[in-house]
Amino acid sequence: MKAITVNLKIWRQAAQNAPGGFFTFVAKDVSTDMSFLEMLDVVNEQLVRDGLEPIAFESDCREGICGVCSLVINGLPHGPQKGTTTCQLHMRTFDDGAEIIIEPFRASRFPIVKDLIVDRSAFDRIIQAGGFVSVNTGGAPDANTLPIGKGVAESAFDAATCIGCGACVAACKNASAMLFVGAKVAHLAMLPQGEPERKLRASRMVVAMDAEQFGSCTNTLECEAVCPKEISTSVIGRLNREFGRCITH
Ligand code: SF4
Ligand code: FES
């Protein structure tokens, strides 16, 4: 087992409207086999032992599927490893003695709750507006009872891998949510289960996205570059086409 020491600069902020700033911590004897969040756990254990308040950050699944581990690491949402959530990032990615700057997602529609935790409930409201299916799908059907082509199934699955983390918004200079909304609209638009609401879904979600005051897409592609699920910006084209269908039908 290799152990390294890393110098951390971590954003701390007691509440949404409280002043915030960077605080320095040294994490010693960090196993390179640890995940990034396990390293923060160890830092917090020491803070608690010292009678200090631990650093607030979010995690749940720690396996890259829930989307809550929203950190900006050295300027990049989810850190330096492409296609990887913060919770799946390991300390072997960093050199001994490295300085690591850790901040919350920076986007006005994701206000800071405390330290590294942001409120991403705007995404929930967009999903509520249209990202559902009303059809009664019943139990899991037998394989091959729904004739969906392999190419369509794979494209729908690729879009469905969006975990709603918000990194696309955090990376975008406009704080646009188009990649997220595009992924949600695209995966349902390609499958028969999504047909009942298909004509309304895109408009409902775009209206909700605009009501939440996310910015416009100007094709800078930062969203695709940082997305831990490597969602393609082709879903934005799909969203635009689905939106066009809504307003012309
Ligand atoms: S599109 Fe990618 S970056 Fe955006 S919310 Fe979904 S998984 Fe996260
Ligand atoms: S903690 Fe669930 S995706 Fe990172």
Topology:
Layout (H helix, E strand, L loop, with lengths): L2 E11 L6 E12 L4 H14 L21 E3 L2 E2 L21 E6 L7 E3 L2 E2 L2 H10 L19 H11 L6 H5 L6 H12 L8 H14 L10 H5 L7 H15 L1
Parallel strand pairs: 1-5
Antiparallel strand pairs: 1-2, 3-4, 3-5, 6-7
Helix pairs in contact: 2-6, 3-5, 5-6, 5-8, 6-8
This protein binds iron/sulfur cluster and FE2/S2 (inorganic) cluster.
The site of iron/sulfur cluster has 14 residues, from helix 4 and helix 5.
Structural notes for this entry:
The chain is α+β, with helices and mostly antiparallel strands and 249 residues long. 35% of the residues lie in helices and 16% in strands. It has helices at 36-49, 121-130, 150-160, 167-171, 178-189, 198-211, 222-226, 234-248, and strands at residues 3-13, 20-31, 71-73, 76-77, 99-104, 112-114, 117-118. Strands 2-1-5-3-4 form a five-stranded mixed sheet. The chain has a two-stranded antiparallel sheet with strand order 6-7. The longest helix is centred in the C-terminal third of the chain and has 15 residues, at 234-248. It binds iron/sulfur cluster and FE2/S2 (inorganic) cluster.
